[in-house]
Amino acid sequence: MENEFCMITTTCGRHDLAKELASRLVEANLAACVQMMPVSSTYRWKGKVMMEDEYLLMIKTLSRLYPLVEKAILENHPYETPEILNIPVHGGLTSYLGWIKETVN
């Protein structure tokens, strides 16, 4: 099971766009679950320190689907360079991991 599962993170600046992206990923069977939460981000962009309220999306899926999830995010994201991080899952509740596998297959 090692590295069979991953959590992909991205952020959106608007709640409606975050909800739309989450729905697209789940409806396309690219994600079993997408959780959203408001966050405050501080980052450097084009030489300037920025502080923005955003929505963090935590996308639970299979590692082999990462390229398709990345493509879907890029096609539906307004940011020039969106956060897209692929975090390997090295373990978890067996029944939960089984549910992810069953849901996105």
Class computed from helices, strands and strand pairing: alpha+beta
| Total DSSP helices | 3
Order of helices and strands: EHEEHEH
Mean pLDDT: 95
Shape: elongated
What percentage of the residues does DSSP assign to strands (E)? 35-45%
Estimate percent helicity.
25-40%
Low-pLDDT stretches: none
Verbal overview:
The chain has 105 residues and is an alpha+beta fold. The protein contains 3 helices and 4 strands, in the order βαββαβα. Strand 2 and strand 3 form a beta hairpin. The longest helix has 13 residues, at 15-27. The model has no long low-confidence stretch (mean pLDDT 95).
Question: Could you write a compact summary of the structure shown?
Answer:
Helix content is 32%, strand content 39%.
Identify the notable features of this structure and list them briefly.
about 100 residues, four-stranded antiparallel beta sheet
Q: Helices and strands in order, then pairings?
A:
Blueprint: E1 5-12, H1 15-27, E2 33-45, E3 48-62, H2 66-75, E4 85-89, H3 94-104
Antiparallel strand pairs: 1-3, 1-4, 2-3
